[in-house]
Write a structure and sequence with these properties.
Elements lengths: L15 H10 L4 E7 L4 E7 L5 H11 L3
Amino acid sequence: MALGHYYMAHKTGFTLKSLTQALHQAGFSTSAGKRRAQGWDLWVLATKGPMAEEAIRNLAGRVLPG
């Protein structure tokens, strides 16, 4: 890349949507997440067992960074 070979750059990563889809495909039944644009980071809370949508969103709001 130092020589301008940008095609060699690794272009991998998750969007919030693709991360939650991957978690569901891996067997997690419930998830809630957020992205922080200033840090380019994603945060997701996921459970293997069922959990009410409102409950996981409330929990995520308390434990995930703002």
